[in-house]
Design brief:
Layout (H helix, E strand, L loop, with lengths): L1 H14 L4 E8 L8 E7 L4 E9 L3 E9 L2 H7 L2 E13 L5 E12 L2 E8 L2 E9 L1
Antiparallel strand pairs: 1-2, 1-8, 2-3, 3-4, 5-6, 6-7, 7-8
Length: about 130
């Protein structure tokens, strides 16, 4: 498993050069709303390289990789769900993935909502599809 994660990270590092196309802008509901999130997908790679930029008292960059067209298929079906990884992703001998999280967005009655669980926090999200 560790070799698989290392290979994934090496491939992901190469993919960061791809142009990113924003897909969602999200906020955490609140007054005032100070936490924002952007989801973007690469437009010229052999895989979908998905980046998630969370702004919560500073920028946090997360990423994942899907088969080409996978992100678009999920969004067209009304949802987007994936594991996301931080720059310090690691897996210990205990099998725990550290610096990782889960992104889950879904469409209901024309509105996109969901959550991001990462960095020890859970962020409820209201999103606009771009």
């Amino acid at each position: 498993m560790n070799k698989m994660i290392l290979g994934f990270l090496l491939l992901a590092g190469v993919s960061t050069q791809a142009a990113q196309v924003p897909v969602f802008n999200c906020t955490v509901p609140g007054k005032p709303s100070t936490v924002t999130l952007e989801v973007a997908v690469s437009d010229n790679e052999s895989v979908d390289y998905v980046t998630v930029t969370l702004n919560d008292k500073g920028a946090i960059n997360l990423f994942t990789q899907m088969e080409k067209g996978g992100a678009q298929k999920q969004v067209a079906a009304g949802n987007l769900g994936t594991l996301v990884f931080g720059e310090q992703i690691s897996q210990g001998d205990d099998g725990v993935l550290r610096d990782s999280g889960i992104l889950s967005l879904s469409q209901d009655a024309g509105k996109w909502n969901g959550l991001l669980s990462a960095k020890g926090s859970v962020y409820p999200l209201e999103c606009t599809k771009l």
